[in-house]
Design goal:
six-stranded mixed beta sheet; WH-like_DNA-bd_sf; alpha/beta; transcription; 43% helix
């Protein structure tokens, strides 16, 4: 029975590899088996299910309609098996464990450091895999069971994603602390931003979309001199030049060489949320991390959601 189960699982993985690559040669290389062996195993699978799963008539190999349906269930079966294996290995006392975390980029500048420090202090046996990615990739990764937890923004989410509000993130125009306007006590009318040269995050960042929408709503066309895909690069640029930017106030708070200038009307606040797959298995490590995030948010005084 065990041998039969192992063979079936191998069949599923082989089929998914061919479907992904659309080519037996590349799939065989990826699986590190010979192409004849791979072809034979796929034919065995097709004989077992009684239908043709792959269309081999064109230049590339494609799934048949039956194959498309079968692959959906195959992916789900392998995902559920991986979750079951993690559940078996899960240790409730948190002496060991692992966590797969993804965050949207701005959080690496002010939130991830405190979270990892606290996790290591409380649960040094837990290993953590952290990735920075866009929110749509975070949600897709959660649904595919490639991630355990995501930190992003509340709003509309893919079906199957659950969001738990953490805190409210506020943003401001930011200049270097050496700039004369850093000492200004009044809010800056948004219309005056059109007279300033800005360095902004690139379009991959949710913060950039949020900023662009704000300026468009108030009919302001900013003079964008620099676009950067790194928060740290942006901080260094603003710290050393007359350029201004837009950043979360929590980032500015951690960098004394930056000064926030409130805008009038204010940039809209955003709700930061913890994301997970609705039906996904929650390991002891994931449950502990959720509690830890809430504690760190409270200790650092972020505005409640």
């Amino acid at each position: 029975m065990v041998g039969s189960m192992a063979l079936e699982l191998r069949h599923l993985r082989y089929l998914l590899a061919v479907a992904e690559h659309g080519n037996f040669t590349r799939a065989a290389e990826d699986l590190r088996i010979s192409q004849p062996t791979l072809s034979q195993q796929i034919k065995q699978l097709e004989r077992a299910v009684g239908v043709q799963l792959l269309d081999r008539t064109g230049r590339s190999v494609r799934l048949t309609d039956a194959g498309e349906t079968y692959v959906q269930y195959a992916r789900r079966a392998l995902r559920d098996l991986a979750a079951a294996e993690r559940a078996v290995l899960d240790v409730a006392d948190l002496s060991r464990g692992s966590l797969r975390l993804a965050v949207t980029p701005t959080f690496t500048a002010y939130l991830i450091g405190p979270l990892i420090a606290e996790l290591h202090t409380r649960h040094p046996g837990i290993t953590l895999d952290v990735e920075e990615m866009t929110q749509d990739r975070v949600e897709a990764g959660l649904l595919a069971d490639e991630l355990d937890i995501g930190i992003a923004f509340a709003g509309s989410h893919l079906p199957g994603i659950t969001a738990t509000a953490l805190f409210t993130e506020t943003l401001s125009l930011v200049v270097g602390a050496h700039r004369p306007e850093a000492a200004a006590e009044r809010a800056l009318p948004v219309a005056e931003v059109a007279d300033r040269e800005l360095a902004l995050l690139s379009g991959d960042f949710a913060t950039r979309g949020h900023t662009d929408a704000y300026f468009a709503r108030h009919r302001v066309t900013p003079r964008i001199m620099v676009e950067a895909n790194s928060i740290q690069a942006l901080i260094e640029i603003v710290r050393r030049t007359p350029l201004a930017t837009v950043l979360p106030d929590a980032v500015t708070h951690d960098h004394p060489r930056l000064s926030p200038i409130p805008l009038e009307p204010a940039l809209p606040a955003r709700t930061v949320a913890l994301l997970r797959r609705e039906s996904g298995y929650r390991s002891a490590a994931a449950r502990a991390f959720t509690r830890l995030v809430e504690d760190v948010v409270r200790e650092r005084g972020y505005l409640p959601a």
